[in-house]
Structure formats: structure tokens, C-alpha cells
Amino acid sequence: SKGNQQKIKFIAAMLNKNLKYLLMDEPFDGLDPIMVNKIQNFLLTLKGKVTMIITSHRMDVVDKLCDSFIILKDGVVAEESSKSKSSKVIIVTNKEMPIEKLQKLVNVSSVKQEGEEILIEIKSLKDFKAVNSQLIKMKEYVWSSLRRKSLTDSVFERYA
User: Fold this and answer.
1) Cα(41)–Cα(76) distance, rounded to whole angstroms?
2) Are the C-beta atoms of residues 3 and 24 closer than 8 Å to each other?
3) What is the pLDDT of residue 43?
4) pTM of the model
């Protein structure tokens, strides 16, 4: 199977006792979630000892493994480092909420409508309670929930 081929390639690469660089092209393609987790955890033990270059569409893995990443689309379009790794905090609410009112709420960074929901980016998680209280007081309010987006997800969505 493709998953077994991937595991054999990975094991073969690890047999090199003088391993300094590891170049992996979609290393988690074809693997089940348990094996992805095992290989990811093993690669974390190599951090700082081996230079790893990974090409992947698995942004969850990139976020955990990499100190920096580059998004390529007709050339380099984004470059980020672990120093800027922070997640976005998003409050999702019903689409009936007036965007112009939401933009005026305290501690709100941005507001946009996405399908049947409105996404409200807030400055930090500690501001959630205050912003949510402001939402509840609005007559158009039906529901809201909290969502976090990692930096890699946010950058990937922007350019994908």
C-alpha cells in the first residue's frame, strides 16, 4: 500500500547515522492518523539536531513541526517564523448581525461574512467574554461560538 511505501521510505532515511538534512515531500500522504502522529512525534525528537525541509499540504503538521514555513504559489508569497506563531481568535455568530455594528465593538480586530456565518476576529482570548457579552445585548443576536485558527491555517487560506 501507499502507506507502507511511505513508512519504508521514512525508515530507510532514518538508517543514515550521519543524518544532517532531511528532505521530505508529502511524507504523511497515504498514512493513517495513528502513523502520522507516531512519525510526527519522532520528527519532533530530531528538532534542533537535523535540518528538515518538508513540503506538505497538511498545515496541522507543519504548524507542530516547523520553526518557519514558506507558502509557494507562483513564487514565494508568504514566509513566517515561529517567533510570529500565534493563533487567531475568532467568534462565529449568526449572519443577521449587522457588520457595521460589529466593527464598532471594543476589542474587535476585523469582521467578515463567510456563508451563513459572520467571523469576528478578536484581539486575544481574554477579550472573548467581554465581546460575547456585547453581542448578547444586540437584538439580532441568535448564537455565537469560539474558534481558533493557527497561523499556518490563516496564511494557507489567504494564498490557497
Assistant:
1) 28
2) no
3) 92
4) 0.54
